[in-house]
Amino acid sequence: MIKAAMELNVSEHLFKGALTIDELAKLTESHAPSLQRLMRGLASIGIFKCNEERKWEMTPLSTILHKYFKHFSSYLLDYHVAWTSLTEVVKTGENQFEKLYGTGYWNWSNTNPKILNNVVQAYRESNEIFCSKLTDIYDFDQFEQIVDIGGNSGWLISRILKSTKKVTGIVFDQIEVIKEAEKQKIDTKVLKRMRFVAGDALVSVPSGGDCYTMKWVLGDFDDAAALKILSNITNVMKKNAKLILILPVIKDDNKQNFGNFLDLEQMFLGAGHERTETELRELLKKAGFRIERIIESGFDLCDIVEAVHE
């Protein structure tokens, strides 16, 4: 569905204003009844919506399909073939990505410069959509040094440092990602208070932080690997430090939530999965953490989980 909407440039047309299905069909050179069915399917997962005037319009999620966010669109298309394995994944419970591409997802993306660039840029673009208000919701000014595990392009740390006065930050990720991240344009004043560190969170993480953040990271790993990363953080974090997870907390009500789509994506890209509040509490407890509170940001993908070391 998403691929079809991208190829038809639906977001480009609706970005200018709401349209009836006939108006949209004319602009996209489509069969109106078939286009209507596609739009209904996309609306069911929060991409586009139909207003009371029976006109189709944008939603925050449909913004990612706009050409302005070309890297995010390219990122989705890079691995769309993997979706063809979904039936086999559901039948067996086993990831099929390696069979299709000859290697695991992260090795595949990290060793292909074009795809890696799409990944880094896509994270930056999606952050602008989903996470731009995080610093309005949570007080990061209470910390001295924040270590962002899996920090990718450095967007989160740079956004936090812009909103604070004295906080310093470390962007921690794999060497290939760090090399790409260092190419990003970051405000000079902010850059003076941050640094990039390469490494493997499954082995160790930088010490000295009184806040450790992970945004859209924990869901990439199964429980054993996630526990290893959390334990590595526990081993080096300062006394009274906090762990801030930014991720979708899966609800048990099975209602429309884009976090469910992300969880499905995790299922065929690797061994990871998104987690419910109960699952998060149990996992964090094993690593010695206690969840203090969960703050809903208004976007399905960016709940803020605040935890402390017990």
TrEMBL record:
Q: What is its EC number?
A: 2.1.1.4
Domain O-methyltransferase C-terminal intervals? 83-290
- Entry protein name: Acetylserotonin O-methyltransferase
Gene Ontology biological process terms in this record: methylation
One GO molecular-function annotation for this sequence?
acetylserotonin O-methyltransferase activity
Q: What does this protein do?
A: Catalyzes the transfer of a methyl group onto N-acetylserotonin, producing melatonin (N-acetyl-5-methoxytryptamine).
Q: What keyword terms does UniProt attach to this protein?
A: Methyltransferase, S-adenosyl-L-methionine, Transferase
Q: Where is the O-methyltransferase dimerisation domain?
A: 2-66
Q: Which Pfam families match?
A: Dimerisation, Methyltransf_2
Q: Which organism is it from?
A: Leptotrombidium deliense
Which Gene3D superfamilies does the record match to this protein? Answer: 1.10.287.1350, Vaccinia Virus protein VP39 (3.40.50.150), Winged helix-like DNA-binding domain superfamily/Winged helix DNA-binding domain (1.10.10.10)
